[in-house]
């Protein structure tokens, strides 16, 4: 009986709920990390990651990116996002632990991670798809959230009636795969509500 209860709670943390969506696949592991693990990880990453305030130039004007970012992974991996190109910083143990956990439940392999730190509700990420050529045709993106719950919004590129909103709580893993990046855009919108800090990690495989 006790053993059954233990295996029940194990399978709970690894339990994935598919989100019904055409033209792509999304799986949500609502609590892949326990509240204790998630809050330890949040503090560790807040301290140990080399967070950067990037700037982008739009129509000749320089803007601060509305969040802090960092890029880690295996050596010699270059990645471009928001018009910025970076070499990865070397893995640190906490990032490797998370990578191994999500590789185990997803069956996918990752060699790099983009980190985003949303300091409050004014920080955001605008509509985009993770469709850079170096990610390959149907990339698997493993998105781990820590801290404040924020809503990931999705909209279909050609069918305006198709929209989804997925609250991403601390400790969750969202897996995006199949043709999703081809057909859908996603964003984290600003919020006027009082919001605490959130860290999101998107693990990727760069060819
Ligand atoms: O913060 C999030 O949940 C989304 C992050 C994201 O879309 C990205 O890093 O490409
Ligand atoms: Mn994205």
Gist?
With 207 residues, this protein is an alpha+beta fold. The chain is 21% helix and 39% strand. It has a single domain, classed as Alpha-ketoglutarate-dependent dioxygenase AlkB-like (Jelly Rolls).
Question: How would you describe this structure to a colleague?
Answer:
This protein is an alpha+beta fold and 207 residues long. The protein has one domain (14-204): Alpha-ketoglutarate-dependent dioxygenase AlkB-like (Jelly Rolls), CATH 2.60.120. Helix content is 21%, strand content 39%. The chain is built from four helices and 16 strands. A hairpin with a 2-residue loop joins β3 and β4 (61-64). The longest helix has 14 residues, at 35-48. The chain starts with a helix and ends with a strand. Mean pLDDT is 93; it is low at 1-8. The structure holds 2-oxoglutaric acid (AKG) and manganese (II) ion.
The rounded distance between the terminal residues' Cα atoms is 47 Å
Q: Give the mean pLDDT.
A: 93
Main sheet characteristics: 8 strands, mixed
* Radius of gyration, CA atoms, in whole angstroms: 17 Å
Derived structural class: alpha+beta
Tally the beta strands: 16
Note the beta-strand portion: 35-45%
CATH topology: Jelly Rolls
Spatially, the strands of the biggest sheet line up as 1-2-14-11-16-9-5-8
How many helical elements? 4
What fraction, in percent, of the residue positions are helical? 10-25%
Instruction: Count the domains.
Output: 1
Q: Can you write the helix and strand succession as a string?
A: HEEHEEEEEEHEEEEEEHEE
Q: Note poorly predicted spans.
A: 1-8
Tell me the CATH superfamily.
Alpha-ketoglutarate-dependent dioxygenase AlkB-like
Apparent shape: globular
The CATH architecture: Sandwich
The top level CATH class name: Mainly Beta
Ligands bound here? 2-oxoglutaric acid, manganese (II) ion
């Amino acid at each position: 009986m006790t053993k059954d209860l233990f295996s029940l709670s194990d399978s709970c943390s690894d339990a994935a709920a598919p989100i019904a969506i055409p033209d792509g696949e999304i799986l949500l592991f609502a609590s892949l990390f326990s509240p204790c693990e998630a809050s330890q990880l949040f503090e560790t990453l807040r301290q140990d990651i080399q967070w950067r305030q990037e700037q982008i130039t739009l129509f000749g004007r320089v803007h601060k990116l509305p969040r802090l970012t960092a890029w880690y992974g295996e050596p010699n991996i270059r990645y471009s996002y928001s018009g910025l190109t970076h070499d990865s910083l070397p893995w640190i143990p906490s990032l490797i632990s998370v990578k191994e956990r999500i590789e185990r439940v997803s069956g996918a392999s990752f060699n790099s991670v983009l980190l985003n730190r949303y300091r409050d509700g004014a920080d955001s990420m605008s509509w985009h798809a993770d469709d850079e050529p170096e990610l390959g045709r149907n990339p698997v993106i493993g998105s781990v959230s820590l801290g404040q719950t924020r809503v990931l919004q999705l909209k279909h590129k050609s069918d305006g009636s198709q929209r989804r909103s997925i609250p991403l709580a601390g400790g969750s893993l969202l897996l995006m795969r199949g043709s999703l990046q081809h057909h859908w855009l996603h964003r984290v919108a600003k919020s006027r509500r009082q919001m605490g800090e959130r860290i999101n990690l998107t693990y990727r495989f760069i060819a």
